[in-house]
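Sharing a chain and its predicted structure for anyone who wants a worked example. Both blocks are below, sequence first, tokens second.
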Amino acid sequence: MKLIAAMVQDQDAEKVLGALMEIGCRATKIHTTGGFLRGSNNVILIGAESGRVDQILQVIRTHCHPRTQIVHPSEAPYLSSPMEVEIGGATIFVWDVERYERL
């Protein structure tokens, strides 16, 4: 078994969850806040058999896209002038699971 944790933006989270449900994957969404821009994000946790990891990662890749955004100092006080940054896409971790039980 594997545990997949995907950090995705709010704009992409529902599309990812819907696509995961279509392929029979259960997932848990946890609302989070990013560290750099303090933007609204989500962590999607997915337990999966090892053989399904590539399929699940492809679903995430299909529905999470990078975007550019102008960030102003009023939104990020540590900036001295407006700055264009790339946001979105997904950050994904995959761990081995020692034990899995569904009660």
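Comments welcome. Strands lie at 2-9, 28-33, 40-48, 66-71, 83-88, 90-96.
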